[in-house]
């Protein structure tokens, strides 16, 4: 490797020197096709390109090449100037000698070439001696980059049982070195791990199978390590590796197999149809859809009694009941069951057969069964209006067990809420509890319960009872008829066609006969013999003023046995008609209009009547209103001593009722405030003289309390307002507090009340009078 690099270095140096300075030969001329002589202009110096190896490992700056101009006489007046990519940073030039050096190590993978320009300048005049010319410095590659794969780990799969050389995956590596120079970027692939199962193509990186018929059931996952090496795989080349995880994909190459040849199951005889008896399962080494199976019954004496279905989730065969089982009839059944793969791969049919069989024996166990009716349902018929207690029909049930138990019959009263039927608990005979009406209900659906006395097991059966029709209803009008006759009608004219209905249903159909209950001078009836009849007029000249309506009794009879008949009344109204027989009006308003009373007059009359009624009602309401009772009814009434007021005192804590400002300014006290609840006795009450302005007692009292608070060490350190209930000595009644009163009412004297004035006269009379009575 070192010898190769030295050879390349010597070659690049020779190329660099040969391209650094190309001196043209002066005086050479050439001729063109026309015979003219062309003279070549002489340049002082010229070059093409330089070559430089990347990753220089030497000491100092790396020499690139030398520039020299013919204008340079080596007297020191020429200066070389370098311009372009990396000038002054990556590359520098000796301005006197023209030597170019690289100032640092270069990497071709970062930048492969640099384009620069150089010129020769007179140091004294600063003029260009030569025009600037471009040249290229190319960076030659060395093998300094190892191959790299696109992924550190690849995931691939291949079908099991594949032939040798089956494609698995292609892995690709890249090398940042120059592919056009040497073998630095020429890669060779090899396998480091994964033999002898897989191989890799050296040039393409394609991984293929190396062994035939690899079986997933034996080993499913493989890890393969692939190496990519440059320098065409020679020694000294750089390399990189990647890991490929390969999974063998399953194919249907394993048939299903039962782990046992015989299975034993059991089920009670009471198991319902479709209920599960048990499960059997075959095993398949494949996975996914290749392991899907379906089960079937090939033969056996239980083929008609049982069925088998496949559970697609667990791949089990579920045996179910197909028909009702009976322990007393048969107790053991045998089935031959087959399992088969759903998806069979024809490539591996030689590994088959892909099915298996097993024997399933099912034992039926005995259970105590409920009674069984002789029928699944019963239908009885009974005539309507049959007397209570009449027999309808009989139901029968038995115990299917080997030991017969007694059975008791009852009716489920939830199905016979009206209690129309009864049943004999011993023999199952159904009878009526009341007469039935077909017109109310044609069918009655009840449920009969059969219960074993020993085990209380029950079975129910539906019983449908049809009520047969009996001619017990008379026919009647099919609808309500609004019949009218014109005043100008003629005799024998049709005014109405009637029909009838009957709730009964005779076997031969209805046949009604229509007639009048008596001879009518105004109308007659004609039976059409098709269950309809026509009403005709006997005369003409009807008048609404004489008779505005007629009642016509019509007798309707049926033809069933016994014959039923009814009389229906047809109301015929007399109306005014035009010449064509069209009704104009039948109301009484027309009669009033004909008498000369208009509609407006009628409305006015009704309005007046309504106003009079409202006045009478209002007057009666005012008369019934009670007067408000006076406060005092009589002097003899005991209640004359009690005067009630709506004002309610607030007690000792009521700061609204007591005006503290009165104590502070006695001059503003108003002693003559009038009560608002009673009428004052005097229009101008006398004014009481104001108390003395000094109010010494109140002032002394407040000052004393103030001194006590100021000298109290426990008082709070802030201003506070203290309120005292001191009445002063100016009150005529003195203190009214009950705290200073005598212990008993007998110790009190009320003579002073008589001196308080007329306002307290009632109070004085009441208390002074009571005191005198006690003394007496």
TrEMBL record:
Leader peptide range in chain numbering: 1-22
Keyword Metal-binding: yes
Cellular component GO terms, alphabetical: adherens junction; catenin complex
Annotated Pfam families: CADH_Y-type_LIR (PF01049), Cadherin (PF00028)
Locations listed in the record: Cell membrane
Domain of life: Eukaryota
Membrane topology classification: Single-pass type I membrane protein
Annotated keywords: Calcium, Cell adhesion, Cell membrane, Cleavage on pair of basic residues, Glycoprotein, Membrane, Metal-binding, Repeat, Signal, Transmembrane, Transmembrane helix
Start and end residues of each Cadherin domain: 69-149, 150-258, 259-373, 374-477, 477-591
Entry keyword NAD: no
GO biological process: adherens junction organization; calcium-dependent cell-cell adhesion via plasma membrane cell adhesion molecules; cell migration; cell morphogenesis; cell-cell adhesion mediated by cadherin; cell-cell junction assembly; homophilic cell adhesion via plasma membrane adhesion molecules; synaptic membrane adhesion
Protein's UniProt name: Cadherin-10
Function text: Cadherins are calcium-dependent cell adhesion proteins. They preferentially interact with themselves in a homophilic manner in connecting cells; cadherins may thus contribute to the sorting of heterogeneous cell types.
Transmembrane segments: 590-622
Primary localization class, coarse: membrane
InterPro entries: Cadherin, Cadherin-like_dom, Cadherin_CS, Cadherin_Y-type_LIR
Any one Gene Ontology molecular-function term assigned to this protein's record: beta-catenin binding
């Amino acid at each position: 490797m070192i010898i190769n690099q030295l050879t390349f270095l010597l070659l690049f140096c020779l190329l660099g020197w040969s391209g650094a300075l190309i001196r043209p030969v002066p005086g050479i001329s050439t001729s063109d096709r026309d015979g003219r002589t062309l003279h070549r202009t002489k340049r002082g110096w010229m070059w093409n390109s330089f070559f430089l190896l990347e990753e220089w490992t030497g000491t100092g700056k790396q020499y690139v090449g030398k520039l020299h101009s013919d204008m340079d006489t080596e007297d020191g007046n020429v200066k070389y100037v370098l311009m372009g990519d990396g000038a002054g940073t990556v590359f520098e030039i000796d301005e006197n000698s023209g030597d170019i050096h690289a100032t640092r190590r270069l990497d071709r993978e970062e930048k492969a070439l640099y384009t620069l320009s150089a010129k020769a300048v007179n140091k004294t005049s600063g003029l260009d001696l030569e025009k600037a010319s471009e040249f290229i410095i190319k960076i030659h590659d060395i093998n300094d980059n190892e191959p790299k794969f696109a992924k550190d780990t690849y995931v691939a799969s291949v079908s099991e049982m594949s032939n040798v050389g089956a494609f698995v995956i292609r892995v690709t590596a890249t090398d940042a070195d120059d592919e056009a120079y040497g073998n630095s970027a020429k890669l060779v692939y090899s396998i480091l791990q994964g033999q002898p199962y897989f191989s890799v193509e050296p040039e393409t990186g394609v991984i293929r199978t190396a062994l035939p018929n690899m079986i997933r059931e034996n080993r499913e996952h493989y890890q393969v390590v692939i190496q990519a090496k440059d320098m065409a795989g020679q020694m000294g080349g750089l390399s990189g590796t990647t890991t490929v995880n390969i999974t063998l994909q399953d194919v249907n190459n394993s048939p299903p197999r039962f782990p046992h040849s015989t299975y034993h199951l059991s089920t009670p005889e009471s198991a319902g149809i479709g209920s599960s008896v048990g499960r059997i399962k075959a095993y398949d080494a494949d996975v996914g859809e290749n392991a899907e199976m379906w089960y079937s019954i090939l033969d056996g004496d239980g083929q008609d009694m049982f069925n088998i279905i496949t559970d697609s989730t667990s791949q089990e065969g579920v045996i179910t009941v197909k028909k009702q089982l009976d322990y007393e009839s048969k107790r053991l059944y045998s089935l031959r069951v087959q399992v088969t793969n759903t998806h069979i791969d024809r490539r591996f049919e030689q590994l088959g057969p892909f099915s298996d069989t097993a024997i399933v024996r099912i034992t039926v166990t005995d259970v105590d069964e409920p009674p069984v009716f002789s029928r699944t349902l019963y239908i009885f018929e009974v005539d309507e209006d049959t007397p209570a207690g009449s027999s309808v029909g009989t139901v029968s049930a038995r115990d299917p067990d080997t030991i017969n138990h007694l059975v008791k019959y009852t009716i489920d009263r939830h199905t016979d809420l009206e209690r129309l039927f009864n049943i004999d608990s011993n023999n199952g005979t159904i009878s009526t509890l009341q007469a039935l009406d077909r017109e109310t209900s044609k069918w009655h659906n009840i449920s009969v319960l059969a219960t074993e006395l020993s085990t209380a097991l029950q079975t129910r059966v539906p019983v449908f009872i049809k009520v047969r029709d009996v001619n017990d209803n008379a026919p009647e009008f099919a609808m309500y008829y609004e019949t009218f006759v014109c005043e100008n009608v003629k005799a024998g004219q049709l005014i109405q066609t009637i029909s009838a209905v009957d709730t009964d249903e005779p076997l031969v159909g209805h046949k009604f006969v229509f007639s009048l209950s008596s001879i009518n001078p105004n109308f007659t009836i004609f039976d059409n013999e098709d269950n309809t009849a026509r009403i005709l007029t006997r005369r003409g000249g009807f008048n609404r003023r004489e008779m505005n309506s007629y009642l016509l009794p019509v007798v309707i009879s049926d033809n069933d046995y016994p014959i039923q008949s009814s009389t229906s009344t047809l109301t015929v109204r007399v109306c005014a008609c035009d010449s064509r027989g069209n009704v104009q009006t039948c109301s009484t308003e027309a009669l009033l209009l004909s008498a000369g009373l208009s509609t407006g007059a009628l409305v006015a009359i009704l309005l007046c009547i309504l106003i009079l009624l409202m006045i009478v009602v209002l007057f009666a309401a005012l008369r019934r209103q009670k007067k408000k009772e006076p406060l005092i009814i009589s002097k003899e009434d005991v209640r004359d001593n009690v005067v009630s007021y709506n004002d309610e005192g607030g007690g000792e804590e009521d700061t609204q009722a007591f005006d503290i400002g009165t104590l502070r300014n006695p001059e503003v006290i108003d002693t003559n405030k009038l009560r608002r609840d009673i009428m004052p006795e005097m229009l101008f009450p006398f004014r009481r003289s104001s108390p003395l302005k000094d109010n010494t007692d109140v002032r002394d009292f407040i000052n004393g309390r103030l001194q006590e608070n100021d000298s109290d060490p426990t008082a709070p350190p802030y201003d506070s307002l203290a309120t005292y209930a001191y009445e002063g000595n100016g009150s005529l009644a003195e203190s009214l507090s009950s705290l200073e009163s005598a212990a008993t009412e007998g110790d009190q004297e009320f003579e002073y009340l008589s001196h308080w004035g007329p306002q307290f006269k009632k109070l004085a009379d009441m208390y002074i009078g009571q005191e005198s009575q006690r003394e007496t």
